[in-house]
Amino acid sequence: MADDILLDSPPSPSNLTALDIEERVAAPHLVWWVVGVGLGVGGNVVLGAVFLARPWGRPPLQVDRIIGLLSLTGLMTSLATLPPQLYTNSTALYQSIIAGTGSLCQVQGFLLNLLCLLSLWYTAVLALERYVRLASPHEHALTFSLLNLSVVVWGVLVVLLIEVSGPIYGWAQYGYVPECGVCVLSPASTHILTYTAVHTSCYVAAPAAAATMAALAVIRRSMATPPPPTRGSQVLKTAGGMRVLCCAVLLSVLFMLPYHLLLLLQAALVTVHPKAKVVSYWLKICAITGVYPAVLLSARPSEGTWYIRAGYIRL
Fold first, then answer.
1. pTM for this predicted structure
2. Hey, which bits of the chain come out as E strands?
3. Residue 26 has pLDDT above 60, yes or no
4. Which end of the chain is least crowded, N or C, by CB within 10 Å?
5. How does the average pLDDT of the chain come out, rounded?
6. Residue 295 pLDDT exceeds 80
7. Which residues does residue 182 pair with via DSSP β-bridges, in sequence order?
């Protein structure tokens, strides 16, 4: 009877075998093939080429540059997570190579945390840029000049590099999480509660609130009065196109928040169901890698032409 009880009880995290890890990660494998390969890699490459390619040598406008940065962030996230997911599903050696808290695990956790925050902050910059363009078009050229935009982009990168370096030096820790199949912030690490509290309130909630309010304001204003056309931009130029872009912003923020909220709950020693962890993680990956390619490339504007270096495609 005792043996039956032992056999029926679920394995503890310390006794997980390679087969257990493989079974946990294999569940969303088909989803990752669609999102990771189709949208994460192919979609972001096409998105970046469409919005950054300019006819006749003209430089891309500010909004196109921000969308190009978001596509680059999505592509890098796909490349940082795709090999581990595929390797874990095909062989049992991955856990012994990167699992735990080794240097490779720290590098992967550092990159994924940085790319996640970059995507969220650049989304906020995109929403604010569109709001200023609609609400104060005469101030847009000065507030979001190419020089000011470069300062903002590089300033955000420097600040976030400092923030995500905390777990490397002992303020929380990056570790292998079987439910995600990759190395992310470990809910059981030291000082994880204080780190997630600062991380969520200052670096997640603040840009998420700014992006949400700016996107909703743009939608409301565009429905009341049609916005002026964004001449020369690859972004959809009509009021409907502006709302499509804002919907992508709102979806990206909405998909990204559950993961951070559940991480904060786990840091506060609140029990979270494993399926909730998996769903929130994949929603975050979809927010970074799949939302903008799926929404912007499927909108199919009829009022303009999107140029590519070798010619043009009329949609």
1. 0.80
2. 174-177, 182-185, 306-308, 311-313
3. no
4. N
5. 77
6. yes
7. 177
